[in-house]
Design goal:
Elements: E1 17-23, E2 26-33, E3 40-44, H1 57-61, E4 66-70, H2 90-103, E5 109-113, H3 117-127, E6 132-137, H4 153-160, H5 164-171, H6 176-184, H7 196-205, H8 210-220, H9 228-238, E7 242-247, H10 261-264, E8 268-273, H11 279-298
Parallel strand pairs: 3-4, 3-5, 5-6, 6-7, 7-8
Antiparallel strand pairs: 1-2, 2-4
Length: 301
């Protein structure tokens, strides 16, 4: 059952700052709001978007929490070096985000991971378990069950053999129609989904050289499933409090990928929403309410 929004939820007109910091010579853009001495939320975005996906969540929680949402290299408003100049892998992006957290002074934080944010965030958590106070997981995978569907077949073929022929179907993911599909497939009401999403994301995807960046990331995604046992061992050993807020109609990361977390986490709150891949678009208010209650209970500054 989808939880109802809390009518007593405090509304905020928190000021969001739009900042840039240098990491390894790159401009890393980030959004930041909330009291500096409050518990920190590090928000890690997915494909094909950026910190833009958190534009509503940040002010919804900034009265009580310190929220920081970076754009990865090659995404959003961060630098976009060519593939010849920068290694676009999940290992490397995790290194950049690790340096980013240290540069902006995030000593402890709750991770919000979605899509690409999950393999980036879980790399941080395994390397620095002492820094991660809790996890909020929204359509982000750490188990083989979540990748056992038709969507992943051309990607798995590409991981096996990186050829021009196997690359062709993957280029279809960069089309405007595919971006719109990611936002609207599986939602209850398409009229509730703002076209600003694809009108922000698509021009960035269409920048010269960006398709090659995204193909490199598609190939690098194959490095993630072999790490799943390591991430699961982290869950079992450190038992971070976890809140799952998952769009159950997502064809990329379906609900089958959410269920296995129950095997390894003891302090787990589990919610499936009747929506698609970008659950914040349709159920952002309810997710913010759940996060507020979860963080109050599990995270102390």
């Amino acid at each position: 059952m989808t939880p109802k929004s809390d009518p007593t939820r405090k509304q905020t007109t928190a000021k969001v700052a739009y900042r840039t910091v240098k990491i390894d010579g790159l401009d890393i853009f980030y959004r930041e709001a909330g009291p500096k001495d409050a518990p920190v939320l590090l928000l890690l975005h997915g494909f094909p978007t950026s910190s833009h996906m958190f534009r509503n969540l940040i002010p919804a929680l900034a009265d009580e929490f310190h929220l920081v949402a970076p754009d990865y290299p090659g995404y959003g408003n961060s630098s976009m070096p060519a593939v010849e100049q920068f290694e676009y892998t999940f290992d490397h992006l995790a290194e950049v985000i690790e340096k980013f957290t240290e540069k902006v002074g995030l000593k402890k934080y709750t991770l919000y991971v979605m899509d690409y944010g999950a393999p980036i965030g879980y790399r941080l958590a395994v390397k620095h378990p002492d820094r991660v106070q809790a996890l909020v997981v929204q359509n982000g995978n750490a188990y083989d069950e979540g990748l056992d569907n038709d969507f992943w077949k051309p990607l798995k073929a590409y991981w096996q053999e990186k050829t021009a022929e196997r690359e062709k179907p993957l280029r279809g993911f960069f089309l405007r129609e595919a971006t719109i599909w990611q936002y609207t497939n599986g939602v209850r009401d398409k009229e509730a989904i703002s076209p600003d999403n694809w009108n922000v994301d698509q021009p960035l995807l269409e920048r010269p050289g960006n398709a090659e960046i995204q193909l490199a990331m598609f190939y690098s995604y194959g490095s993630n499933p072999p790490l799943y046992p390591k991430w699961q061992a982290y869950f079992r050993q450190f038992q971070p409090p976890m809140l799952i807020v998952w769009g159950k109609n997502d064809e990329i990361f379906p609900a089958a990928g959410a269920e296995p977390y129950k095997r390894d986490l003891k302090n787990l709150e589990f919610h499936l929403f009747d929506t698609g891949h970008f659950a914040l678009e349709e159920d952002g208010d309810q997710i913010a309410d759940l996060m507020r209650a979860f963080l109050r209970k599990n995270v102390k500054q």
